[in-house]
Amino acid sequence: MPPSDNLGADHVVACDVGAKRLRADPSLIETSELEFFKEFLTSFGWNGQAPASEDVDLEAEAKAPAANGGAEAAENGHEAASPGVSVAIDETADAKGSGVMDLLGSDDDAPQRSKQRDRECTFGADLEAELRKEHNIAIDDDDGDSERLPRETEAYPLLPDKMQSESVSGAMRKVQAKIKQEALTALEQGNLNKALDKYTKFLRTAGASAEMLLTRANLLLKLRRPLAAVRDCSVALKIDSGLSKAYHTRAICHRKLGHWRRSHRDFSQAEKLGVNESTAMHKYVAKKLGLVPDSKTGGWTKQQVARKVREGKANVETTPDGLQRGTRVQITGLQAKPELNGWLGTVEFLDIASGRYQVRVDGETQSHKFKPANVLSRQQGASSLVDERAEKKQRLVQEKTIRRRAIEKRLKQDGIPDMDASELVEAEMSGMSCDESLCRMVRRLDTDQALEIVWEVQAARVHDKQTLLHEKITQALGDDEDEDHFAEEEPDPERLEEETAPLPPLPDDLEAEPADEQAEERIRVAKQAAAKALEAGDAAAALAQYTKAIELGAGSALLLAKRAELLLTQKRPCAAVRDCTAALEVNPDCGKAFRIRGMAHRRLGHWPEAHSDLAQGQTLDFDDATTAVQAFVAKRAQAHAAREAASRRQGAKRARLG
Question: How open is the CA angle 309-313-318, to the nearest 5 degrees?
Answer without folding.
Answer: 40
